[in-house]
Amino acid sequence: MPNGDTEWITTTEAAALTGYNIVHLRRLAREGTLVGIKRGRDWFVDKAALLTYKEHMDQLETAKHNPWREELTDAERGRGREPENPAMPAP
């Protein structure tokens, strides 16, 4: 696998390590939220990036469910963004 410094783990190992569902981990890797690579049908994620992501989510606690939080609006995601379809009003 690329980059000898990176410790790659399977989504099954990642799920056991974090408690996240395997499907959720695959989606995070596919969307680029987690550093991941796909080999054949299997996804591998960067263990350090996974632990950093989990730590961040743990720090947010219930705020991670807030679609108005600043980090999402700054990244033009969440509820504070401009509507994609100009015919539709912003919420």
Structure report:
The protein is of the alpha+beta class and 91 residues long. The chain has a domain at 8-62. The protein has four helices and three strands; from the N terminus they run βααββαα. The protein has helices at residues 11-18, 22-31, 47-60, 70-74; strands spanning 8-10, 36-39, 42-46. A three-stranded antiparallel β-sheet has the order 1-3-2. The longest helix is centred in the middle third of the chain and has 14 residues, at 47-60. The model has no long low-confidence stretch (mean pLDDT 81).
Could you provide a short overview of the structure?
With 91 residues, this protein is of the alpha+beta class. It contains 4 helices and 3 strands. It has helices at 11-18, 22-31, 47-60, 70-74; strands at residues 8-10, 36-39, 42-46.
Write the layout of secondary structure elements.
Blueprint: E1 8-10, H1 11-18, H2 22-31, E2 36-39, E3 42-46, H3 47-60, H4 70-74
SS summary, helix count:
4
Order of helices and strands: EHHEEHH
Percent range of helical residues: 40-55%
Instruction: Tell me the number of strands.
Output: 3
User: What does the radius of gyration come to?
Assistant: 16 Å
The chain-level structural class is alpha+beta
Strand order of the largest sheet: 1-3-2
Q: Report low-confidence residues grouped into runs of 5 or more.
A: none
Overall pLDDT confidence? 81
Proportion of residues in extended strands: 5-15%
User: Separation of termini?
Assistant: 44 Å
The main sheet comes to: 3 strands, antiparallel
Shape: globular
